[in-house]
Amino acid sequence: MQYFLTSSPFAPGAPRLNPQNGFVDALKRALPAPVPALFVCADPDRHAYTDKISQEMRWALEDAGISLSAFQVLDGRNQGDAEKLVKKAGLLVLAGGHVPTQNAFFQAAGLKQCLRFFDGVVLGISAGSMNCAATVYAQPEEEGEATDPAYRRFLPGLGITRTMLLPHYQMVKDSLVDSLRLFADITLPDSMGRTFYAVPDGSYLLGLNGRETLWGEAYRIRDGRMEQISRENEVFPQSIDEADALPSKVCKQSFDGNIHLL
């Protein structure tokens, strides 16, 4: 399995894939042509919305020159067919949305079990990327979530990666939730004994054969501290097994348009 876990795969203000940090070229190289795609929703009951954003995703893929032999949608209308649909797919697109809502749908549909023998490409978008982790950090985002003692901030995920991503950093870094600063008052305390990676749109985590690299601007949050680990057009190398043990200062690799999994 190869996976691209993005903050957002779209270019700013345009319904097209974002070529930043070699994303489009790398995705095209990873996919056979043509490829059958399956779009997995974030909310199983918002059918009209899922139909709209899935079509936008399809148009963006085709606009980028990715040939699709099929394009199907998995949501609450057909979740009983999840295993059959996943088996047919070569590209699995996991939508963005509300993390706990999508997480509950993934569990209800048995998506983790469906992926046991999946050998295609996973493209995660925002919440979809977050829910790929073995343990998902459901960073509070809606009013009431930060102060609700019953709100679960850590959830079981798909187990595709151990890396816990926090998307849209450029948008939410100064956000308030329940009058609390999202990062200073919520996320940094939650990082004690854990590691999160905050990424803006245009950056992504690439995984292949047990190795991972962060492409583009990224920030590591660990034990209540936050540091920038890479910038635009840089690659931050890490292995799935060694990600939490990396030293603070890591030699960064310059971006040259080609994939180098270290």
Written account of the structure:
Mean pLDDT is 91; it is low at 238-262. Strands 3-2-4-5-1-12-13-16-17 form a nine-stranded mixed β-sheet, sandwiched between helices. The chain has a four-stranded mixed β-sheet with strand order 8-11-14-15, with no helix packed on it. The protein has eight helices and 17 strands. The chain has one domain (2-254): Class I glutamine amidotransferase (GATase) domain (Rossmann fold). Helices cover 24% and strands 28% of the residues. The chain starts with a strand and ends in an 8-residue tail after the last strand. It is α/β, with parallel strands linked by helices and 262 residues long.
Quick summary of this structure?
The chain is 24% helix and 28% strand.
Keywords, separated by commas or semicolons:
262 residues, alpha/beta, Rossmann fold, nine-stranded mixed sheet, four-stranded mixed sheet, 17 strands, globular, disordered C terminus
